[in-house]
From TrEMBL:
InterPro entries with a match to the protein in the record: EF-4, EFG_III/V, EFG_V-like, EFTu-like_2, G_TR_CS, LepA_C_sf, LepA_CTD, LepA_IV
Species annotation: Clonostachys byssicola
Protein name: Tr-type G domain-containing protein
Major subcellular site: mitochondrion
Binding residue positions for GTP: 95-102, 160-164, 214-217
Membrane topology summary: Peripheral membrane protein
Catalytic activity, as annotated: GTP + H2O = GDP + phosphate + H(+)
Amino acid sequence: MSVAWTSAARAWTRRTTTTSTSTPTPIISRWLTRQTLLLKSNRVGSSGPLRENSYAGPLLPPWRRHFASKSNASELERRIAAIPIERYRNFCIVAHIDHGKSTLSDRLLERTGTILPGDSNKQVLDKLDVERERGITVKAQTCTMLYNYKGEDYLLHLVDTPGHVDFRAEVTRSYASCGGALLLVDASQGIQAQTVSNFHLAFAQDLALVPVINKVDMPSADVPRVLEQIETSFELDPASAIPVSAKTGKGVDAILPAVVERIPHPTGDETKPLKMLLVDSWYDNFKGVVLLVRVFDGQIRAGDTVVSLGTGMKYTVGQVGIQYPDATPQSVLRAGQVGYVFFNPGMKKIQDAKLGDTFTTIQDAEIVEPYPGFEEPKPMVFVAAFPTDQSDYTKLADSITQLVLNDRSVTLQKDFSEALGSGWRLGFLGSLHCSVFQDRLKQEHGADVVITEPTVPTKIVWADGTEEIVQNPALFPDASDHRIRSAQLFEPFVKATITMPEEYLGRVIELCEANRGMQKSLDFFHATQVILVYDLPSAQLVDDFFGKLKGATKGYATLDYEEAGWHEAKLSKLQLLVNKQPVDAICRVVHHTQVDRLGRHWVTKFKEHVDRQMFEVVIQATVGNRIVARETIKPFRKDVLAKLHAADVSRRRKLLEKQKEGRKRLRAVGNVVIEQSAFQKFLAK
C-alpha cells in the first residue's frame, strides 16, 4: 500500500514539474518533503491498518484527502470482515490503581499501529480531564486493534477498566465482555489489595489470565519477589509472567503474541438471532445515549429494529461502529465483537440504558434468553450540594444534570436548607467517586459548590416489622420520638482488605479497632507483606479512613472493600443548635460511642466562624433533649457608665439594670444572623 502511494506521489510530482519549464514552486517542494518524511516515520513498526489522518492523509494533496479517508475506512472494514471469530480476542487489564494500566494500553495501541507514538497520545483511553489529571481511570473504555501475527490478521478488543474500588461496577461489567485478562503487577510495589480483589472478580468470570510485571526499569523493582507473590497468592506459573516497562516500551512486544496464544477466542454464531449485551453507555448531545455493547450471537446493522428485554422498549438502530480509538462507523457488528450502537431517534434518558440488559431483534424477542444481568450499583455515600451563590442555582442545576446524564450511578434529588438555600442530595459509590464528581463539576462546568460531610444510609425496622431506609440524616427520628425506642436500627458495614508492610501491622490494627472494626483474618502472604481483613462500619470508612490509613503507614498501605450487609447498632441523631434553633445543614446519625467527641468538635469548630452579636449566642450539640456540648459567644458590651461620676451609685445600678433588661428583650426577639460563609468554612475540610 505504501509503495503504491509513493508511486502516485512521484507521478503527481512529475505531472506538476513537466507542466512548467521552471522548477517546482517552494510551496509544492515543502509539501512533498514533509510527506516523504512522514512516510518514512510511519513505515517503521506498523503492523496494523493505515489510520485516517495519520497514514492515508499525508501522502495525498489536501483536496484529495476526503476521498482517501473514505477508502481508508472501507479498507479497515474489508480487513475486519475477512477475520473469522476464531481470530477474535477480547481482553482487559486487571490491576491495582496506578500500576500502569492506561500507559500499557497506549503502548499496545502503538504496537498495533492504532495510534502514533508521541506525547499527544498519552492516556488515549482516559477521555475525562479528571482521569488525566489524577492519573486514574473512572469510566471503562474500549478500543479495537488489528494485529498481524504470523501472516494472519487478528481482531483485538482491549477494555481499559478502572482500578479503584468505588468503580467496581465498571470493572464487573467489563469482565463480562472479555475472554481473558492481563494481570498487571507493579514490580516495586508487588501485589496490592485491589490486585487481589480484581483477581477474584476475574477468576469468578473464568477469565484466562496472563501475568505481566510492569515498571521493571525502576531502581526499586524486585521482580523475583513479585514472581513469588504471583505463585503463592494466585497459583499462577511464574515462568508465564512477562516483565515489561510500559513507560519505555521494554518487553511490550511479547504481550500481544501471548494474548493471541493464551486467551481463548469468544464464542458466538452470527447466523443465530441477535443477542447483544449492554456493557456501558454515555450521553452525547447530538446522538442521545450511545451504548457500548458486546455481540454474543447474530449481527446488528443500521436500520435494524431492536427491543430491550429489560425494559421492553423498541428502537431503530441509527449507526453501529467500533472505537478505533475514536468512534469509527461500520456497516455491521458481528458475533464476538465489542462496539458502539446509537439509535435514530436517539435514546433520550440514560436511565433507560440498564447495564447488563440484553437486546435482540423484535422478531426474536420470544426465543432469545436474556443474559444474566448485573446488579445496579447502589450508592454508599450521600452528600448535600449547594451553590456558593444562590443566583447560580439554575446554572449549577444544568451542570449537575449534564454530569448525571453520563453517570447513572449518581442518584439525584432536590434538597433545601434554611442555612444554605436550595440544592441537591447526591448519592455516590464512594468517597473517591464523590471527589471525582466534584472535580468534574469544576473542570467541565466551572461551578463552585458547597459539599456537606458524607453520610451513609441507615435502616430502621419498626415495631410492626416494616423497614425504612433513611438517606438524609435530617429525616432520621429524634431520640425523643417514642417510636424509635422500640425500633431496631442498622448501619451498613463493609469488608475491608488492607495490604501493608509487616512493620505497620500494629498501627493499622489500632486504627481499625478505634473505628469499631471487627477482625476477620490476618495472613502473611510474603516475608514482608501482610493482608488484614476487617469488617468496618461504612460511616467510619467515609470519614477519611483511607487518609488516616495512609498516615499510619506512611502511604504504603492499600485498601479494598466490598459490601458486608447491615449490622444492628445503637445510633443517635446529633444536631447543632444555635440559640435553641436547629441548623439543618449540620446534622448526622452517629454511633452512641462517638456522640460526645463529635459534639464537642462541632461546637468548638462552629464557634470559630460565627461573628459576635449584640446579645449572647449559645451553640449546642444535642441528641434529643440531651445537651452533649456547649459553647457561648459573649455579646458586644456597650459601656453605659462612661459618663457617670464614681460616687453616683444609684444611677450606676439603674443603668446596668436597664442594659440587662434590654439584652433579655433582644435575646427573646432577635434572630442570630449567621453568614453563609460560616457554614461553608465549617463544612470545608
